[in-house]
């Protein structure tokens, strides 16, 4: 996501009360915060449209939006602040996905959303793609035994790479593949992300892969 650095974004994000700071994340923090609800993480949340809608639609689940750039996260926080009836089940993390194992030291997540992840088309950057094998291993570590990953993209190259990476992974089993999501499911069953709205309006088909550590559960 290209966004000019916003002056003061670091400070604004660092002091925002819905951003979970490292010092608030003591052992067992996720279990405490979830308080028995299922917990879902979007990695590379962007400006937050998907997480805001999910939190509103599913009040009995906990949602966490992780974003590495403060200027992008700030946009999500501003949207949150502008909601009159603010969802209490949504929190934000200003972090890099590379540090997931430190942030989520225990296997406590029910699901991970990877929505329109940066494609990193050049082969020499393949390891930065969020579906690269080293990331899949991290997801495996922080997901509950029945945990799931849902991936959406409009990018055919990233879709093919992710399909192979997941199919070859010892950590995940592919449950379902969509090659034109918006034609294959009813609109009411799908919460669209900011990028999804943008690219589907341009006529791009949306790809989706659903996978699990173990079969038999479902994500909202
Ligand atoms: C293309 S945008 C998609 C945003 C949103 N998920 C959507 O579908 O509209 C990808 C986002 O992922 C973030 N991102 C990329 N790599 C990341 C990483 N390693 N850790 C955290 N965020 C990352 C980028 O800063 C950007 O905001």
Percent range of helical residues? 25-40%
Counting helices, strands and paired strands, the structural category is alpha/beta
Rg computed from alpha carbons, rounded to a whole number of angstroms: 17 Å
Hetero compounds? S-adenosylmethionine
**Secondary-structure element string:** HHEHEHEHEHEHEHHE
Instruction: Give the overall form.
Output: globular
Q: What is the typical, i.e. mean, pLDDT? A: 95
In what range is the share of β-strand residues? 15-25%
- As for the CATH topology, it is Rossmann fold
C-alpha termini separation: 25 Å
Tell me the CATH superfamily: Vaccinia Virus protein VP39
CATH architecture term: 3-Layer(aba) Sandwich
Question: Can you walk me through this structure?
Answer:
Helix content is 33%, strand content 21%. The model has no long low-confidence stretch (mean pLDDT 95). The chain has helices spanning 9-15, 29-34, 49-57, 70-81, 100-103, 133-142, 156-168, 181-184, 194-201; strands spanning 39-43, 62-67, 90-94, 109-115, 143-153, 173-178, 207-212. The chain has 220 residues and is of the alpha/beta class. Strands 3-2-1-4-5-7-6 form a 7-stranded mixed sheet, with helices on both faces. The longest helix has 13 residues, at 156-168. It starts with 8 loop residues before the first helix and ends in an 8-residue tail after the last strand. The chain is globular and about 40 Å long. The protein has a single domain (9-212), classed as Vaccinia Virus protein VP39 (Rossmann fold, 3-Layer(aba) Sandwich), CATH 3.40.50.150. β2, α4 (70-81) and β3 (90-94) form a beta-alpha-beta unit. It is built from 9 helices and 7 strands; from the N terminus they run ααβαβαβαβαβαβααβ. The structure holds S-adenosylmethionine.
